[in-house]
Amino acid sequence: MTTHWILGPGAIGRLLAHSLAPFAEVALIGRRGFPAQQRLMTPEGEARTQRLPSLTAGQLAVDAPEPPALLHITTKAMSAEAALESTANSLPSTTPLVLWQNGFLAQPRITQTWPGPVLCATTTEGAYLTGDDGVVHAGRGHTFVGDLNNRHGELAETLAQTLTQAGLTATAVTDIRQRLWQKLAVNAAINPLVALNGVRNGELRDDAYAGRVVAVVQEVAAIMLAEGIAPPNNGQGGASWLALVWQVIENTANNKASMLQDIEAKRPTERGAILGPLIESADRHGLACNTLQALNNEIAVLEASYSRTLNH
């Protein structure tokens, strides 16, 4: 059987492990060990329990098992490079990587530095953790897989087929860069607002938040135009970006976004990977991004406040 190591046992990492386990050998790799018996709640409300082996990076360094056919990196964007470094000595440099990060920060950096193939995955699957031994699959979505230099189409196709067989519908694409920017646009409109207001995705449809969603999307649409990123679904300008955002909000209405989970757990967020590239692009192109900058500042203040609390 093909072996998949999943580096980063967060919500997407554990969902991936649960899905792949009936069809492949999987191992969850994290900074610490996790219970072998792991629970999954499906979108249909079915509870499943499955044994998912876990290893720590320290254990790999001492007694590495046979290297995997694929290493999936499912950590937060700001941790991806350090996580890879912690396992790199246990891997042949030809091992294919699959990057599942939000934003557009880790993907170009790791693609440039890792000698082997690097695939990028962008997904609208919704998942959140319920402790060390549980994950909820909150909403079904679609995953797109490809590489930034369009050199590993066959590998992407094989992975897409494997994921689809495992119940995570996936498609290999040649325009993954564009799709990562599209996901970035959606994340920027959803994650900061739900994180700051402590709400589920679907609540952004309420009058209290909808105006700010529209304001973010207006700025994002202008940035995408400047970056040469085509509007989604063959649409036109801001209207198609807004339609995409509302559709994702509808599809993931019950989901607790990762940035909200980070805020609740008083962890650093992925604002640098999600808002950072957009603000940087707006500055580069001389575009206004007052709403994006305000969201970034508000989250930075919140992170600093709980950072001070934890340090006292």
TrEMBL record:
Which residue intervals define the domain Ketopantoate reductase C-terminal in the entry? 175-300
User: What catalytic activity is recorded?
Assistant: (R)-pantoate + NADP(+) = 2-dehydropantoate + NADPH + H(+)
Pfam families, per database record: ApbA, ApbA_C
Q: What class of enzyme is it?
A: oxidoreductase
Provide the GO MF annotations for this entry.
2-dehydropantoate 2-reductase activity; NADP binding
- Read off the InterPro entries from this record: 6-PGluconate_DH-like_C_sf (IPR008927), 6PGD_dom2 (IPR013328), ApbA (IPR003710), Ketopantoate_reductase (IPR050838), KPA_reductase (IPR013752), KPR_N (IPR013332), NAD(P)-bd_dom_sf (IPR036291)
Q: Which residues form the Ketopantoate reductase N-terminal domain?
A: 6-149
The terms describing its cellular component in GO are: cytoplasm
Sorted UniProt keywords = NADP, Oxidoreductase, Pantothenate biosynthesis
EC number of the protein: 1.1.1.169
Show the Gene3D superfamilies listed in the entry. N-(1-d-carboxylethyl)-l-norvaline Dehydrogenase, domain 2, NAD(P)-binding Rossmann-like Domain
GO BP annotations listed: pantothenate biosynthetic process
Pathways per UniProt: Cofactor biosynthesis; (R)-pantothenate biosynthesis; (R)-pantoate from 3-methyl-2-oxobutanoate: step 2/2
Q: What role does it play? A: Catalyzes the NADPH-dependent reduction of ketopantoate into pantoic acid.
Q: Which family does it belong to?
A: Belongs to the ketopantoate reductase family.
* Record protein name field: 2-dehydropantoate 2-reductase
- Organism of provenance: Vreelandella maris
